[in-house]
Amino acid sequence: MIFSRAGVYTITNKANDHRYVGSSNDVNRRRGEHLDALQHNDHDNPYLQYAFNKYGADVFEFEVLFFCPPRDCTRWEQQMMDTLLPEYNICPTARFRPETSSETRAKLRLANRGRGFRSGQKHTVEARAKMSLAKQGNTNALGHSVSSQTRGRLRALNLGRRHSDETRAKRSRSITVWWAARKASS
């Protein structure tokens, strides 16, 4: 199991040796955030996203260069950026993003009160009655159960049915790859 540790990391495109340098207080969490955003075509860095879309996930390698105390992450990230000259970094300088104090969060909470969707407002009795009426008879709602007659028909349809050998092989490969990736990340 990988514990949350601060450090400096690179994301390297093995096809052209271009890289991104970053740092985080939890490099394992940050790796997951990068991968999730890239896979959903929603990464903040357009250079990295374009390359990921062009070359595919298999070409990219996430590597922790070293672990360091959280307070030193930005300094070491900058040093690595100066040394490696990463092609995918948008900003040429590493930026420190300090934690917001509880006092500042309280001020922001007060300033933003009433700005969000319904933000603490309760529905009127009439509105709740209308919503309740609209949901009545909705068979897609949670808690809906299939009748015993329908369950019997579904059982009869699927009884004795087997997946083809090709489908079973595909599912087996998929599960094997998933477990291998999970073991490698832990």
Give a description of the structure.
It is a single chain. The protein is of the alpha+beta class and 186 residues long. The protein has a domain of 120 residues: GIY-YIG endonuclease (3-Layer(aba) Sandwich). It contains 7 helices and 3 strands. Strands 2-1-3 form a 3-stranded antiparallel β-sheet. A hairpin with a 4-residue loop joins strand 1 and strand 2. The protein is flat. The N and C termini lie close together (5 Å).
Tally of contiguous helical segments: 7
CATH topology of the domain at 1-99 and 166-186: the name is GIY-YIG endonuclease
- Helix content range of the residues, please? 40-55%
| Strands, count | 3
- The radius of gyration computed from the alpha-carbon positions, rounded to a whole number of angstroms, is 25 Å
Mean pLDDT rating: 87
Q: Which helices and strands, and how do they pair?
A:
Layout: E1 7-13, E2 18-24, H1 27-39, H2 46-55, E3 60-67, H3 73-84, H4 102-111, H5 125-135, H6 148-158, H7 165-185
Antiparallel strand pairs: 1-2, 1-3
Q: Which structural traits does this protein have?
A:
alpha+beta, 186 residues, GIY-YIG endonuclease, 12% strand, 7 helices
Short structural description:
This protein has about 190 residues and is α+β, with helices and mostly antiparallel strands. The protein has helices at about 25-40, 45-55, 75-85, 100-110, 125-135, 150-160, 165-185; strands at about 5-15, 20-25, 60-65.
